[in-house]
Amino acid sequence: MARIGTALAGAAALLSLTGCAGWEYKENICSSGEYPVLSVGGTGSACVPDGEKPDAGYARYPEGKVPQEVGDKWDVYWETHTLDEKGKIIDVSPPR
Question: Which segment of the chain is annotated as a signal peptide (predicted)?
Answer without folding.
Answer: 1-21
